[in-house]
Amino acid sequence: MTTHQTDPGIRAQREAETVTPAPASLFTAERSAEIVTDSFARTPDPRLRAILGSLVHHLHAFAKDVDLTVDEWAAGIRFLTETGHTCDDSRQEFIMLSDVLGLSMLVETLARPAHGRLTESTVEGPFHMVDSPPRALGDTIDEAAAGGEPCLVTGRVTDADGIPVAGAHVDVWQADADGFYDVQRPGEVPDRNLRGLFTADEDGRFRFRTIVPRHYPIPTDGPVGGLLRATGRHSYRAAHIHVAVTSPATRTLTTHLFVAGSPYLDSDAVFGVKESLVRDFAVVDDPERAAAHGLPNPFRHVDFPVTVERDG
Amino acid sequence: MTTHQTDPGIRAQREAETVTPAPASLFTAERSAEIVTDSFARTPDPRLRAILGSLVHHLHAFAKDVDLTVDEWAAGIRFLTETGHTCDDSRQEFIMLSDVLGLSMLVETLARPAHGRLTESTVEGPFHMVDSPPRALGDTIDEAAAGGEPCLVTGRVTDADGIPVAGAHVDVWQADADGFYDVQRPGEVPDRNLRGLFTADEDGRFRFRTIVPRHYPIPTDGPVGGLLRATGRHSYRAAHIHVAVTSPATRTLTTHLFVAGSPYLDSDAVFGVKESLVRDFAVVDDPERAAAHGLPNPFRHVDFPVTVERDG
């Protein structure tokens, strides 16, 4: 709190505020959700009003269901405060909290219901906080070259009718062979290592070189880590490459390409795995093909055809 | 995120973590709450397990009820992050959020259900972040003496059978005649102005001098203020003195003494008003009585008998 709260201008502004009394609201536990929802009755935006009404209903129902004590409430306030204090430019603890509570995955799934021909979506996750650098098709995203199995990723972006989405943007980011993102190793690896923004060709095709990502724990040195420890949950995510596909003509797809055989495919800490997204990263032993792609032999190869939804 | 995440010791610790796979959890919107609740099945503390199960159930039901979009979810993440960043040693924005959503009042009411003879409770609020200084019965808590109507507060702490609670601690804190707490005016008013910790006498009686508090807005320069503005809600609290009564033999009572006739008694921003807590601050015009209490004449007087619950 700052002293400007007592500044005369602010004080005058406080006096001048238009004060619309809310409805009478003498509080009882029985009517609590109704009383609070009524206080939002004059919200100009009907969507915000609906969201707050449902939020208050469920928040109060939760407190009543478990008969939440004052001490438990206070522990919740401390947890949320610490979660906020853990967030900075390179860490988003609230997204991690949403992730481990399955809320991120639910919201993503509600937005893009499963559809026979469309590629399924999954969570964006908390590590997409920097823009991926534009790169040419076939380039490597592994600027650190600090180890890991060399890998070729190919794919083609089409719509549900199989028509290629020429020029689609394919944004990829991933952890390294030790399970760390670039933002977790500042100064140790090149800036924006293992990130790339590719532009599909006229036939919707894209390809890039990388290393096979490793499964990894989400950061556990903050309150979300404390929650996982207190509940006997592990913190690991199955190995994956993040893929987000955008184009002016299609709905954005945010998804993962999971590495078949990775540990934690059946117990991903953020519930992100969908079977259709698990792909074989096959070993290729072919010196000529390796040389053609600028890769050592042998290498791994995965093909990830992406089917996106046309707008309108 | 800090570089120590990649420290070899931490890395070894990550490798050594005991990893207990959660149950298979391929995600669907229909089964989302069940899948996430299952992931908490091995929580050692049964109370924590129950709370998280209910929380997940209601959180997912909320998202499904309103069909929460990814953009709305992201706005929620930003709101919570900003709320966390607004919290510091003299400001608790998450308590304010809980207050304006009626959750604080609900939890307080669930903990201390209305009872014919016991004094009703209300929210603690976000301004009890510093300890009140011990003061002698009859002292003033108004060290600033910067204006406001002089006031005598008297009361008696008894149990439900009318037996006095000798030596009960009566902790009081309040806003000044401009509607500000001491922590909102650092450097402008004496430290811990308008706060006091009194010890009731053998007959359970307490008394202190102060000024009549003013109604005031909760701080609106943070995200909670933004929420109130976006929903057309005012930010004012009816005028009140906070009173918390503790003793080894009784359950803690956290309540307010509201000033009859104050604006906002019927639309308090945090739903804190209960009719039984609204008291007349009567004008007393009696030079002898004023002199006996060390007050100017005329002065205001309120009597607040407090009935608390014996433990066990």
TrEMBL record, chains A, B:
**InterPro entries referenced in this protein's UniProt entry, alphabetically:** Catechol_dOase_N, Intradiol_dOase_C, Intradiol_dOase_core, Intradiol_RC_Dioxygenase
For activity, the cofactor(s) needed are: Fe(3+)
User: Which BP terms does GO give this entry?
Assistant: catechol-containing compound metabolic process
Region annotation (Disordered) ranges: 1-24
* Entry GO MF terms: catechol 1,2-dioxygenase activity; ferric iron binding
What start and end residues bound the annotated signal peptide?
none
* Key words, A-Z: Dioxygenase, Iron, Metal-binding, Oxidoreductase
- Every Intradiol ring-cleavage dioxygenases domain range: 153-181
Short name of one Pfam family: Dioxygenase_N
Under the heading PANTHER family, the entry gives: DIOXYGENASE, PUTATIVE (AFU_ORTHOLOGUE AFUA_2G02910)-RELATED, INTRADIOL RING-CLEAVAGE DIOXYGENASES DOMAIN-CONTAINING PROTEIN-RELATED
Q: Which family does it belong to?
A: Belongs to the intradiol ring-cleavage dioxygenase family.
Protein name according to UniProt: Dioxygenase
